[in-house]
Write a structure and sequence with these properties.
Two copies of one chain form a homodimer. By secondary structure, chain A is an alpha+beta fold. Chain A is 29% helix and 42% strand. Chain A has helices at residues 16-27, 59-65, 69-78, and strands at residues 3-11, 35-43, 49-56, 82-97. Chain A binds chain B through residues 4, 6, 8, 20-21, 23-24, 27-28, 30-31, 35-45, 51-53, 55, 89-99, and chain B through 4, 6, 8, 20-21, 23-24, 27-28, 30-31, 35-45, 51-53, 55, 89-99.
Chain lengths: 99, 99
């Protein structure tokens, strides 16, 4: 069963658009690493929060992606723009529309 | 910008598979109502929780879908199987992979 991830990150004031754009730009490159879906959204009620929903072929694909040089570089570039407040849910993907 | 919704619902013990299957089965029918993505997942850490990520053409499409007879019927059929504990995040969809 495919692995899912729903996470939020809080961005330092004024940096949300920049971080979100970087996440969108990087998402296409995740396909080769086993990512099937990577939805970047901004909270409609909290101006400093980004929500991401991901679907991966397996948890192993997801975990391995974090070690990719381009992903690690993107994360370390982004980190100074984040407050360090994260939430995360790990899920099993059952199906639905548009997958 | 497209409207996003990330929500969780808690199911009475033993009923998660039944509720999740009903959500998956109903998702294809949402396309005509303006839904582009409807991902049904089960928590990997809490055996009674379902997480759903949705993308709609607009918030108005989402809100109107709740009034559709088949959606209203599905919700009222499902309600007795839920504990009443929900979370929800309304978002604006910025882009990503697989959308």
């Amino acid at each position: 069963m495919r692995f899912g991830y729903i996470g939020s990150m809080k961005v330092k004031p004024g940096h949300r658009a920049e971080v979100a754009a970087a996440l969108v730009d990087g998402s296409e490159g995740l396909r080769a690493a086993g990512c099937d879906l990577y939805v970047v959204t901004e909270s409609a009620t909290d101006e400093d929060t980004i929500w991401v929903t991901e679907v991966w072929k397996s948890k192993e694909h997801h975990d391995a992606s974090l070690q990719l040089p381009e992903v690690a570089a993107a994360i370390s570039k982004m980190m100074p723009l984040l407050t360090g407040e994260f939430t995360q849910q790990q899920t099993r993907v059952l199906g639905g529309l548009g997958l």
